[in-house]
Amino acid sequence: MDDTTPDDRTADVPGGHRPAPRVLVRRTLPTEPAVRGSASLFMTEAGAQGVRPGRQMLHVGPEPAAGHIAEALRVEPGTEVLARRKLLLADDVPVRIATSFFRLDVFGGTPICAPGFVTPTLQAGIEALGHRFGHAEEYLVVRPATASETGTLRLDPGEWVVRIVRAAYGDDGTPVHVLETICAASRHIFPIAQVTGADEF
Question: Is 15 a domain residue?
Fold first, then answer.
């Protein structure tokens, strides 16, 4: 964490409760391989920054692929894909919505479809199915938050988010894992660094 400052809206309210303070966390671009290979990218990142990380699984199941997800997975828009969506918190403040997408024709009926978090790690679960990392591409878009994102991240109306899509492919070129991370823009900074070393899904 670089800074923790009270939100402008943290004045006392009736009942003596105060809204959650704003936090500022780092999301390095591109992701450091050592961090990506850890048990949890966010838990490792946030813990190293001195904030208390938390995560909640929001959804595991099939859903239609939006256009940008379908393109990364090389399926037609609207095709049912597996989504694993979680909410990430820093000091109990929601900062990111992270959704992993998988092709059902590749991962359907596997442990990746099970509810809850994959143990020991999602990376290990993918590799246990015989996939080996080939390469990845990351895309970043800044836009206003949707109504759903505003509610889940507890944003003010009109706030913006940063959407990072990381598409990872196996060594045979198979689309293996697409990770879409919706970051509350006001609660993040994005260091840009030269990354060396092995990478992960």
Answer: no
Give the CATH number for residue 89. Answer: 3.40.1410.10
More confident residue, 13 or 181: 181
Sorted by sequence, the CB contacts under 8 Å of residue 55 that are 6+ apart come out as 40, 42, 43, 86, 87, 88, 89, 117
The CA distances from residue 72 to 4, 61, 193, 197, in Å, are 36, 19, 24, 24
Sheet holding 53-64, edge to edge: 53-64, 80-90, 93-103, 175-184, 160-170, 133-144
Query: Does a structural domain hold residue 107?
Result: yes
Residue 42 pLDDT class (50, 70, 90 cuts): confident
Provide the whole-model pTM. Answer: 0.80
Q: What range does the domain containing 139 cover?
A: 54-186
> Domain total for the chain?
1
The helix/strand/coil state of 128 is helix
